[in-house]
Amino acid sequence: MINLIKRLKQYPKIGQTPNASMDANQQSDMNAQIENMARRMAADIVAQQQQLATDVRNGRIYNRFDNANDVINNQKEIVTAGLWSDNLASLITHHTSSTQTTSQRKYYVDVLQDLPENDGSAVQYSIAYGHALGSGSDSTGQLEDSPSKAVYSQYKQLLLTPGDNRFTTAGSGSTDHIYVINFKRNRLKERLDPGNWELPMSKVSARNANATGSVTIGSGVIQLIDDSSVTSAAYGESGRIYNVVSGSLNDGIWNPTAPHYYGLVYPDHGIVVLDGKMLDQKLSTGGIFSNTGSSSEGNNHFALYRSISGSGLFVNPDTSDAYGFSARNSETITSTHYFVRVKNAEYNFSNNSSYTTGSLGAIAQSTFISDPKTYITTIGLYNDRQELLAIAKLSKPLLKSFQREALIRVKLDF
Q1: What is the domain extent for residue 393?
Q2: Does residue 127 sit in the same domain as residue 217?
Q3: pLDDT-derived band at 145, boundaries 50, 70, 90
Q4: At CB < 8 A and 24+ separation, what contacts does 206-212 make?
Q5: Which of 265, 270, 271 is nearest to 247 (CA)?
Q6: 364 within some domain
Q7: What are the beta bridge partners of residue 245?
Q8: What DSSP state is assigned to residue 196?
Q9: 25, 232, 254, 282: which is deepest, by most CB within 10 A?
């Protein structure tokens, strides 16, 4: 604008006669010329400013987010995935851990998805047996506090309301002995996903006489799920509680008007509690399933392990595959969404060494001189100190040119 003022000072003021001999027509022509020149110079200045803005955008290496329009905070989403290693949803092979000590095995058995000596083998869940009076395990050397009693007391304190001394199920009411399936914490994420787990157990025809937990696999498989599909959760000190009933993920609850109840599931703790009375009634075809002898090392948790692993010997008619222990975890993900807006005049040049050639930095592709093109592959998120905080990769390179704009959403999960 300063140049425009200086240029105008070289001409007479509009409406002023430069000399006495200039008539009205000459004066009008002079004024028109001055006005046209002023318009041209103003247009030149606007064009220069626009070109400067374009040059700035072309050389830009980052954009600042507009928090009001470009950033959406605190977006919550529930995400589920297969609970077992490698995010598998069904576990068909079951192996015990060789690293457990003899003392540990009296209380629980760790179950792995692969042979312990193989790479990637990891504990998936554990099984324990508890008895309120200490039956089914040997108290010798345990200060008269047998492992089964310790297990029952532990889960009673963890899951029941203070003052409640017995687990109560819809199947048999108050029960003295329970089987507990405890999912590995790092596989569980935040919780077991209700309605998305299924436990198969093969029926057994006999228990080994020496009480090692060995069983003889009989014919038939019992499948257990929860009743979250037909009833609301009960709430207690341990969070949500559902009943464990007979049924399958494909067919739902068997006989939903009068379900067969087998225990309780506490999804927020990732724990399934099975009623020992119901397993004795339903699981064994040749006698009582549980060994509840006084001060007797029954190894009942190993018996349930063998029943679960034995189900893999049978084919599930719903899937035509071997029966598998199906389960999914669930977690709430809090996300921030960043909308990266790339306009047509921005980011059409690259500082990649392959973009130029020669010592003067000439553009390597001659067609890019008048019509430059780049490919967006990565978005970097920086703080105000220009420190890189996060990197987002596109699934495939995105073409960018003067004819193309881009809107990329970056999702940052916490």
Answers
A1: 63-74+333-413
A2: yes
A3: confident
A4: 206/286, 206/287, 207/284, 207/287, 207/288, 207/289, 207/291, 207/303, 211/291, 211/293, 211/296, 211/297, 211/298, 211/299, 212/299, 212/302
A5: 265
A6: yes
A7: 225, 261
A8: S
A9: 282
